[in-house]
Design a protein that fits this description.
Blueprint lengths: L7 E8 L8 E10 L4 E6 L5 H14 L3 E11 L9 H18 L7 H5 L6 H4 L1 H75 L5 H14 L3 H20 L4 H22 L6 H22 L4
Parallel strand pairs: 3-4
Antiparallel strand pairs: 1-2, 2-4
Helix pairs in contact: 1-5, 5-6, 5-7, 5-9, 7-8, 8-9
Length: about 300
Amino acid sequence: MAISSMTGFARAQVRVAVEDAEQLGYTLTLKSVNHRFLDLQFRLPAGMDAVEVELRRVLKEKLIRGHVDVVMAVERNAQARAGFNRELIAGYLAAFDAVRSEYGLAGEPDLNAALRLPGALQGEDRRDEETAALAASVLEQIGPLVEQLKAMRAREGQALEAILNGTLDRLAEATASVAALRPEIEERYRERLAERLAAAVGPEYDRKRVLEEVAVLVERSDISEEMARLTAHIEHFREILRAGGEAGKKLDFLLQEMNREANTLLSKTGGVSGKGMRITELGLAMKAEIEKTREQVQNVE
């Protein structure tokens, strides 16, 4: 199982068969970006509240993390045939003629007034039927649409994995380089401390005691544990990438630990001349790679 990105997009354009409304259709889109949790936002037409509840359930089952926008836009062709309530209009005209005849009034029926009567236009009577048809279609489409979204997120995840593995390679190389320099750096550190202590106590001093003190200080400045932990973190990072699944939070935690080890490395080797400067360069390069990786990991599901 590979890791997945939280960046993805999916869209479905669907025509819905409704009697006397053949031109009815809709576009349903899913767009996701990174987020600490699963954050679902819906923009649906009026009357789709029950559909939103079901869509929310499906998305929670299929996705783990990410900010997901669900947008539905209904499309009605202006050339679609609009019907009218013949019985209602006929009653209006009959009533108009009866009033005019009974009271001897002049005038003609107002078509605009007739069509503004509640229920006069057939489209108003069919709104519930159209909503029901749209709802049924959306619930059929959401499953394949989520799979389309997940497929894009998986492709993005493959690209992320390649980037992250490249970073791990550079971190591993830097760690190996520091480990190779460690014996010489420790020797330089020991010599420098011995010289400074000898200068401080003068010609009359207990050489054995001085060397013991130097050994203690060198041990406190030993970076072997940091190197071992960095190596272990890098291998653990690779294992998580290979395992896939919900990996983002685990990887982010590991990077925090790596950054802590790099900081300790720099604090222990600061001030050592010669090849100690090279370790400082490598430590700073590690921190730069770790920071870039953290930016990438924010988009891992």
